[in-house]
């Protein structure tokens, strides 16, 4: 294990990234555990307030991210870079745990919209993990030594994989496009398959093709039916179940 760590993490200079990822994941797990205890009214933890205002943990998260980021740039290497990497990971974990709050500019932490925070954290951790495993953006790591010396081959590879990711994004497959940045075959699959019905690609190219539009809608429905429930249960297991939303009938009665 020590030899593997030295060869694959320390020598390539990835130790700060590993420390940041570890701090990021651990911070998210601890933060979610604490907030779930506060929500249940258990344990010694309470919401932090000042002058009657609830201080969200995104606030210290932003401060720690700024300190860790600038500190890592200033130290570059040595013990300092590792320390600031941990500080940055902690800050990023606090910030992204409340990503939905930043996105909606509202306290949606335990609402259905709050699921977006869990999704962003999982995707971020997975992306950093892929980089740690040796995947380079746009598949440059797939090139041979001779191809890497050929600047034209590198540029062509980057452009082609970028186009695949862009096509996947235009077809309404944001996560596929994101993972396709570091795993080009994922972007290729997303680029060649049918677009999501509400995507820009479908609105532009399926408008006069009712059969294709129907096939895209059917495929999206089957995909969501197969994976949406599993994804929700996974998010609930990680971040906690959102508060039940009042029905529209109850809203009309009130």
From TrEMBL:
Keyword terms of this UniProt record: Membrane, Transmembrane, Transmembrane helix
Keyword Cell cycle in record: no
Protein name, UniProt field: Integral membrane protein
Transmembrane segments: 15-34, 55-75, 81-106, 118-140, 152-169, 176-195
Source organism (scientific name): Streptomyces lannensis
Domain of life: Bacteria
